[in-house]
Design a protein that fits this description.
It is a single chain. With 191 residues, the protein is an alpha/beta fold. 29% of the residues lie in helices and 33% in strands. It is built from 5 helices and 10 strands; from the N terminus they run αββαβαββββαβαββ. The chain has an 8-stranded mixed beta sheet, with helices on both faces. A hairpin with a 3-residue loop joins β1 and β2. It is globular and about 45 Å long. The N and C termini lie close together (10 Å). The chain binds guanosine-5'-monophosphate. The site of guanosine-5'-monophosphate (5GP) has 20 residues, from β2, β7 and α4.
Length: 191
């Protein structure tokens, strides 16, 4: 998505550890118009899939997920993160290791908002090692719902997440694909 790549080129900064900071339009300040276009693009890519719900993980996935839900006219659920180990039996849960924060969070989705007939689209801001999407897939498995695929705003293609998910047969659609962040420079995968 050209508009997204332009924003990354203009505002993205590279932090140590291969982390791309996009606080100017995605992770802190949010560009609503760009997010609307992101949502419309995912809606187009996953049209005719019979998607009934969009899932994401709080908090950075919420903006693109809400816009996707708006464009698809389906509800959006954001899995909540808890540091505590408390287990509640009205929740589906999975443990997710955070690449950027180097901590493990338990993510949970209330059973109240999951129907066995759901077909879910998973949205996230970044795909790196694939832990966040894996966590949502684990919950989908527990809930017995169908998964249409994953819509990713920024894929770091040099990290293993996208490849591993595709190998498992999960459809992954990424709107910007980064080949390298070496030497503090963002290089995109050529289409
Ligand atoms: P994964 O679970 O695929 O390893 O990493 C995805 C999650 O880690 C995303 O939800 C995102 O919040 C965070 N993340 C991973 N890489 C980056 C990065 O380069 N920049 C930012 N801002 N977040 C990242």
């Amino acid at each position: 998505m050209k508009e997204l790549e332009e924003k990354i080129k203009q505002y993205g900064t590279v932090l140590p550890g291969n982390v791309l900071k996009v606080d100017a339009f995605l992770n802190h300040q949010v560009d609503p118009e760009l997010m609307l276009h992101v949502g419309q693009e995912f809606a187009k890519l996953f049209a005719n899939e019979g998607i009934t719900k969009v899932w994401t993980v709080e908090s950075s996935g919420i903006a693109p997920a809400v816009m996707t839900g708006l464009a698809m006219k389906v509800p959006v659920i954001f899995a909540r993160k808890h540091k505590s180990l408390t287990l509640k039996n009205d929740m589906y849960t999975a443990d997710v290791y955070s690449y950027t924060k180097k901590t493990t969070n338990r993510i949970s989705i209330s059973k109240k908002y999951v129907a066995p007939t759901d077909k879910v689209l998973m949205i996230d801001d970044f795909l790196a090692n694939g832990q966040a999407v894996e966590g949502m897939l684990e919950i989908a498995d527990q809930a017995g719902v169908e998964v249409a695929g994953a819509g990713i705003v920024i894929e770091k293609s040099f990290q293993p997440g996208a490849g591993e998910l595709k190998e498992r047969g999960i459809r992954v659609e990424s709107l910007a694909r980064i080949k390298s962040l070496a030497d503090n420079k963002v290089t995109f995968v050529e289409d």
